[in-house]
Write a structure and sequence with these properties.
31% strand; four-stranded antiparallel sheet
């Protein structure tokens, strides 16, 4: 079975682009005098400040979800995970790959965090020296059906 979320990757990039366009268009407009009238009590810089704070909070939440590109393949005798974080272009994400032989997978856990919005897969491998815990693979960009298929493949 193979799971690959390139469509999720493009969805994340589109949302980021739309957010930047909306912010880039609304922030300069907020300095115009169209908002200052007797019905709206705030000054123009207050609107700019509200837009800026909203954009910063939305960015923190968006990047806190840790969206990732994920490719999973369980054909053959190994589980193969290829993944990298989706980050802005000036931050170069390092592609990572995990290969675990099927017979040495000890267990896996899927944990939710960040108010239940972020899901992370933790893999544990049994080795002669003990159990190794791999760094998390963030499943935020996967659909629930894909997460369920991944769980079924790892059982």
């Amino acid at each position: 079975m193979e799971i690959e979320n390139s469509k999720g990757l493009y969805k994340v990039l589109r949302v980021e682009l739309i957010g930047i366009i909306v912010f880039g268009g609304s922030f300069p407009i907020s300095f115009l005098d169209v908002y200052t009238n007797k019905y709206l009590p705030l000054k123009d810089f207050h609107y700019a400040l509200i837009i800026l704070v909203t954009f910063i909070i939305a960015g923190i939440i968006w990047f806190g979800l840790k969206h990732s590109y994920i490719s999973f393949n369980d054909e053959g005798s190994q589980y193969i995970f290829k993944y990298f974080r989706i980050t802005p272009k000036f931050i170069k994400p390092k592609p990572k790959m995990v290969k675990i032989p099927k017979e040495s997978l000890y267990k896996y856990t899927i944990e939710s965090s960040f108010f239940g919005l972020r899901k992370a897969l933790f893999l544990f491998q049994k080795t002669p020296k003990g159990v190794v815990k791999y760094p998390p693979i963030f499943l935020t960009t996967l659909k629930n059906e894909e997460i369920q298929r991944l769980e079924n493949a790892l059982k």
